[in-house]
Design goal:
By secondary structure, this protein is mostly helical. It has a domain of about 170 residues. The chain contains 12 helices and no strands. Helix 8 runs antiparallel to helix 11 and helix 9 packs antiparallel against helix 10. The longest helix is centred in the C-terminal third of the chain and has 55 residues. It starts with 5 loop residues before the first helix and ends with a helix. The relative contact order is 0.07.
């Protein structure tokens, strides 16, 4: 009797194959993440490239259209940093220089007296807050170091800001040929149709998600910066930039933004915290129930609880990058599951029809 039958051998080969793929993905994860972000960047620019390609400037030439879009994009970025960049950098340096002093005041508890005196708190309240902060100084320092470590992790990947747009050029120019070559590698017509349907769904989902997130982030940056500037909140440009970047992270991002804005305002003894809290609440309602549904549409179709799980799991698996990739990843898994169900149903129907025809 054979030690392994055919079924056992197939299962064993499948397990080994998946293990090998998993090991490869883990070993090359940084390069794969760079390629993923390049794909996202290409999705963001593809409509503009297609539009330019239909004009006289592009003349139907894909490469020339990509070059024109990149030149215009670089010009717009240069204009943005000329108008806003100097103010943003100045405020970021000032806030960075002040943070150690604020952190020392928090861990020692002295900030309780500084803020309490100006706000008319009782001496008993000030002493209790001072004791609480001093008693939890190690936890506060650990949290601050964790935030600093994550910021340093982002800074070390700054080179990706150059690599990703370069990689995106290849996807913009030859992306359709890549996907079509992969589809044609399968022999059976049903398998090719199955893969083509997956690519179509992924194209629709990723295009809607990436463009919507960019639009929502830009809107958030403008609104946060304008409102905080009007309210004369210190470092409004830096806080607005944090709010815009955090908008890329569903559910958790807005909470982090609110905590940063209220925390910095409180530590700097800003007098109208209630006004800021009301603004943050109203803006969240507008963004979640008015702006986001109109911009995002129903293309991603993820429940907020699923998005929250994806963000937390992504943070555990891949840190900051995992947070940004979490929602597209879980939406992709959802598409694969749905398409596999449809494929299985179609195969069962074909099998049933063939058996019916063979029956005399």
């Amino acid at each position: 009797m054979d030690i392994f039958d055919k079924t056992t051998a197939r299962v064993l080969v499948t397990v080994i194959l998946f293990a090998a793929i998993g090991a490869f993905v883990y070993g090359a994860r940084r390069s794969l993440i760079a390629f993923l972000f390049a794909i996202f960047f290409a999705y963001m620019l593809d409509p503009v490239v297609s539009l330019v390609s239909r004009t006289k400037l592009g003349s139907g030439h894909r490469g020339r259209s990509i070059l024109i879009v990149y030149i215009v994009m670089i010009g717009l970025l240069a204009l943005f940093f000329t108008l806003v960049g100097s103010k943003l950098i100045t405020e970021a340096r000032a806030l960075g220089g002040k943070l150690p002093q604020l952190l020392e005041g928090v861990t020692s508890g002295q900030i309780a007296h500084q803020i309490g005196t100006s706000r008319g708190w009782s001496e008993n309240t000030q002493v209790k807050l001072e004791q609480f902060l001093a008693g939890h100084s190690q936890e506060i320092l650990h949290w601050a170091q964790d935030v600093g470590g994550r910021a340093a992790e982002i800074a070390t990947n700054a080179i990706w800001l150059i690599i990703i747009p370069i990689l995106a050029i290849f996807f913009l120019r030859d992306g359709h040929e890549f996907s079509e070559a992969l589809i044609q590698a399968f022999e059976r017509r049903a398998q090719r149709q199955f893969l083509r349907d997956i690519f179509d769904d992924l194209n629709t989902m990723l295009a809607a998600y990436i463009r919507a997130q960019l639009i929502l982030a830009a809107i958030s940056f403008v609104v946060y910066t304008l409102v905080l500037s009007v309210l004369r909140v210190p470092y409004s440009f830096v806080l607005g930039a944090i709010g815009g970047l955090a908008e890329f992270v569903p559910v958790v991002g807005p909470l982090v933004t609110a905590a940063c804005i209220l925390g910095v305002s409180f530590l700097l003894n800003y007098q109208h915290l209630l006004v800021i809290a009301i603004f943050l609440g109203l803006w969240r309602l507008i963004q979640d129930y008015v702006t986001s549904p109109r911009v995002m549409g129903a293309r991603v179709e993820l429940h907020p609880l699923a998005a929250l799980f994806a963000v937390l799991a992504g943070a555990e698996i891949a840190g900051v990058l995992g947070v940004y990739l979490s929602v597209p990843a879980i939406a992709t898994l959802r598409i694969l599951y749905r398409r596999w169900q449809h494929y299985e149903q179609a195969q069962r129907l074909v099998t049933a029809e063939s058996q019916t025809v063979r029956t005399p």
